[in-house]
Amino acid sequence: MPSITLLPPPRRVRNYELAKAISIFLDTLAASGASEKTVKSYRAALKSFQEHVGGDTPVREVGEDHYTSWLSRLRRRNPPPSKSTLHYYSIFVRRFLQWLGNVDELPAVPGGSREYSHALSWEQVEALMSAARDLRELAMIALMAESGLRASELLSLTWRDVDLGKGMIRVRGKYGKERIVLLGPVAREALSALFEESRPRVYDRLFPFTYQALYKKVKNLARRAGIDPRLVRPHVLRHTFATEALRRGMSLPALQRLLGHSDIKVTQRYLHLVTEDIEREYARVFGEPEDLRHSTFNPYMYRARRIRITG
Questions:
Q1: 119, 236 in Cβ contact below 8 A?
Q2: What is the pLDDT of residues 276-288, one digit of tens each?
Q3: 238 a catalytic residue
Q4: Which residues constitute the domain of residue 52?
Q5: Cβ atoms < 10 Å from Cβ of 87
Q6: Residue 232 sits in the same domain as residue 174
Q7: Residue 280: active-site member
Q8: Considering 150, 188, 217, 239, which one is annotated as catalytic?
Q9: Is 300 annotated as catalytic?
Q10: Do residue 151 and residue 224 come from a single domain?
Q11: What are the contacts of 302-310 at 24+ separation with CB within 8 A?
């Protein structure tokens, strides 16, 4: 996430109890321009840290030992948090302690490399669309699968953002960044029909429900389509869009722009899914590696023979 320049803490903050200092820090974070989602993420991490240390602990007594023991306790939880959660929690709490002036440097938990390990086939996407019970459900699936929208982007759309004539929508992505995204054929038809049916006002939301409701709707669509619900989540549809775009020959820079990635390296992570397609095709044509091991052909004997013939 982009760097946020924080306002300094109160002069006597080290005399406060930890719970009060955390509350002031979160207010400062919001006042410094952090999004509501960012503040919520910090709050979750700091709540976990406060529960470990104790909210009535004086700030001046909180330091590196508390940070280390808190991380150790998180790792021992059953089930333990994901590597990504540990990574970001450590960054958030470290920044809080640095803001207080209690520490200079603390190690963050390595985040590791993110991999996009699953995407649906386009046949499965079409099955989800066919299982839609109304135009809104159809548009919901199509916008994520044909345009690669994040769930948060989808849920923030208003009719003012939609240009059906040009087949475009304006999307507010992470950190308030705006971009223009193209509508796929199904999404465009579904939205046109939905507009004619409901005659909404320009500031009406296209999808007036919460993320939890969206998640449940996607799972229910998967069940009706005969797809294992464990394979289908809103973000999997974004993965599917990216993978399908690469399979059909879209360039990485174009895909980067459509997905709203600030760094093309993030977009490149989808390439491994396309590479898996190539590996499966190779195995289909030439056989699995296990088959080759049982072959009577010995490449080393062939090479030795060639050397004797040409030597």
A1: yes
A2: 666 666 676 665 5
A3: yes
A4: 13-100
A5: 16
A6: yes
A7: no
A8: 150
A9: no
A10: yes
A11: none
Query: Is pLDDT of 292 > 60?
Result: no
Give the list of residues 6+ apart from residue 86 with CB closer than 8 angstroms, or none. Answer: 71, 74, 75, 80, 109
pLDDT in tens, 205-261: 999 999 889 999 999 999 999 999 989 999 899 999 998 998 888 888 888 888 888
116 is annotated as an active-site residue: no
Give the residue-averaged pLDDT of 286-298. Answer: 49
**Same domain flag for 255 and 281:** no
Q: What is the CATH classification number for the domain harbouring 147?
A: 1.10.443.10
Residue in 87, 205, 235, 269 annotated catalytic: 235
Which residue in 47, 174, 257, 269 is the catalytic one?
174
Q: What is the pLDDT of residues 7-20, one digit of tens each?
A: 889 989 989 999 99
Look at the chain and report how many structural domains it folds into. 3
Among the listed residues 66, 94, 188, 238, the single catalytic one is 238
Is 270 catalytic? The answer is: yes
The string of pLDDT tens digits covering residues 189-205 is 999 999 999 999 999 99
| Cα-to-chain-centroid distance, residue 245 | 18
Residue 187 within a domain:
yes
Do 262 and 134 lie in a common domain?
yes
Where a domain ends, among 34, 69, 100? 100
